[in-house]
Amino acid sequence: MAAPITHMVLTEKVFDKFFSDKKRKDFYIGTVFSDIGYLGVVDRQSTHFPLQELKLEDVKKEQNSFTAGLKFHSLVDDIRERFIESKNLYSLIPESKYKTQILKLLEDELYYDKISNWDEFIKFLEDILPEERSFNIKEDDIKKWHNILQNYFSRKPDKQVRKGLAKELNFSEEGQNEIVNLVEQTRLNEKIGQIIEEFHNNFESFLI
After folding, report:
1. Predicted TM-score of the model (pTM)
2. Number of domains in the chain
3. 110-127 CB burial, b ≥16 within 10 A, e <16
4. Which of helix, strand or coil describes residue 149?
5. Domain residues for 57?
6. Which domain of life is it from (predicted)?
């Protein structure tokens, strides 16, 4: 399952081609709202669709732009996970119970510069959509999630940014440090970077 920057970058890569009929703001908010469950305020099942049950056409046919974004989030998670498994990528990550988080955060760092208009997406998150309120999540928790994302999108991830995000997502101090240190170590493996770049370059073909 991808992290927020990766979701935004992959959405931006294909939005105009496949989803130009959708409300841009609503779609993008939908695709990053899905992971609000990291705050412990809603079950993951409530904001995600079952893996391997969604196709691109299901997202395109969805009339509500926010819900289409939610569906696209789950579709991306599924496609990404299958790609990672096909490349046996987790075997290249240093041994840790945080392997999945380490890979996600490295992806976010490597993909960040593929978007130049982060200010647009940060501004999107100034508003809460009516659909977000339909999940029976407290308004303050939705605002908190938006604020976390705005801060995270505001600069390219580095040690400080990663540690701040891990803290916001309630990882222990020990966990924060392990994740930060192992991302630094993982970045040194050129093969991992090449595989991450391969996924981005071929993403559209994986969708179809």
Report:
1. 0.96
2. 1
3. bbbeebeebeebbebbee
4. helix
5. 4-207
6. Bacteria
